[in-house]
DNA sequence: TAGATTGTTAATCGATTAACAATC
DNA sequence: TAGATTGTTAATCGATTAACAATC
């Protein structure tokens, strides 16, 4: 296997590059050097060049990087070129917010199914998509081509549902439940643990105020 | 300054420890060794001991760690002992979801104000809290003791509002807008960039399917 | 006391930064 | 061609893991 190893650190930075390049593109910037981008993003130019060169050379000596081209290449790497079918598992407050979030369709992520156990929401529509009973989820996954399942159910239901989702053939889970899901290693999981995030903020605030810990990078 | 330096990596792991210890406590576990916890959390026992010892010795040789005590100590470190007053800046889909999220009050984070520019939502209530006009935000911050502002407004409004929030005296921003906020270094910012998170998932899915990159830890 | 397990030092590993030759 | 800036190797820095002495 001759696959190039890409570290978690690099992967974590790619969406941020994509975001900044998208903004530069909006502002009709044609080219940018690693030095200029480094000032904008507050990282080192060296890191930018190292990061990009994990995927091959996108720049040109003496010129820098063509913004449009670089944006496109990083988009390809991130899989934004392909369309993705997403289901929402859980139509509570967070699920509803995701259903209406405009950035996802813009990036090619289409919500094609929403599922919940609550009879009060089943049959209602969220952003034009009908909420179906949770029982029908597996059949729906099998009959449609679902790439990603976003899980927004309560903690204790998440693992069981994740197993059903995986058994039905989904290979990517976007997990908003405050648990670490246990799935096979042919399935990728990305967690959004909002409470963890809030506690990190709380730590940093307490650390700053107390002066007890030096916590910055 | 004799403050102990705590790395970002360690801070990032604290909420996860807190979560696991909370679950152990729910299950009436009295003690746990770093070895047992390491199996549960899928990290090394060595890392657990190193992490805890950043803050002083919480364990006892030959015994391990007392779950209740350790949970309490990490809670203190994370600032969960104190009550926090939070305002929501932006009452759109995500803001509404946050207003109704039950985990936050449970951890001592009280939403005491919600602000929006949209006349359609101003005056309405979210989870019993009235949505106020954005104009009133700064006065509200000054008159109340606000610890944290959660920003869920569109990208282009985030920086301007962040400045107003900071000028009014808030020292912690929980940022859900897809931009990096520019604030002084006496203000802490924690980002929840959901699109970035989705793109990471998309990358990992594409990498796994294509076999082009070896991307796991 | 003997066994278990922490706290902590030392060794290893990986990621970031610096430097510079290659080249547009 | 000369100047600019990349791509890439080497040096540094930081984080993780291993090992073990301290001690409950």
Automatic annotation (TrEMBL), chains A, B:
GO BP of this protein: negative regulation of DNA-templated transcription; response to redox state
GO cellular-component term (any): cytoplasm
Amino-acid biosynthesis is among the record's keywords: no
SMART domains: CoA_binding (SM00881)
Amino acids binding NAD(+): 90-95
Keyword terms of this UniProt record: Cytoplasm, DNA-binding, NAD, Repressor, Transcription, Transcription regulation
Residue ranges flagged as DNA-binding region: 16-55
Family: Belongs to the transcriptional regulatory Rex family.
Assembly information from the UniProt record: Homodimer.
Name of protein: Redox-sensing transcriptional repressor Rex
Record gene name: rex
């Amino acid at each position: 296997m001759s696959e190039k190893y890409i570290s978690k650190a690099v992967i974590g930075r790619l969406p941020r590059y994509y975001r900044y390049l998208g903004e530069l593109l909006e502002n009709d910037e044609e080219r940018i050097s690693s030095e200029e981008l480094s000032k904008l993003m507050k990282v080192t130019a060296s890191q930018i060049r190292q990061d990009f060169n994990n995927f091959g050379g996108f720049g040109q000596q003496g010129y820098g990087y063509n913004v449009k081209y670089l944006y496109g290449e990083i988009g390809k790497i991130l899989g934004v070129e392909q369309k993705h079918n997403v289901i929402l598992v859980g139509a509570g407050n967070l699920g509803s917010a995701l259903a209406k979030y405009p950035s996802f369709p813009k990036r090619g992520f289409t919500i094609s199914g929403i599922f919940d156990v609550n009879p009060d929401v089943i049959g209602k529509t969220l952003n034009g998509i009908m909420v179906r009973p949770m029982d029908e989820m597996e059949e729906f996954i099998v009959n449609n081509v679902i790439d990603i399942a976003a899980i927004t159910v309560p903690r204790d239901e998440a693992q069981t549902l994740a197993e059903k989702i995986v058994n039905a053939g989904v290979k990517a889970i976007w997990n908003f439940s405050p648990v670490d899901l246990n799935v096979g290693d042919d399935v990728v999981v990305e967690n959004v643990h909002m409470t963890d995030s809030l506690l990190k903020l709380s730590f940093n605030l307490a650390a700053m105020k107390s002066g007890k810990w030096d916590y910055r990078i």
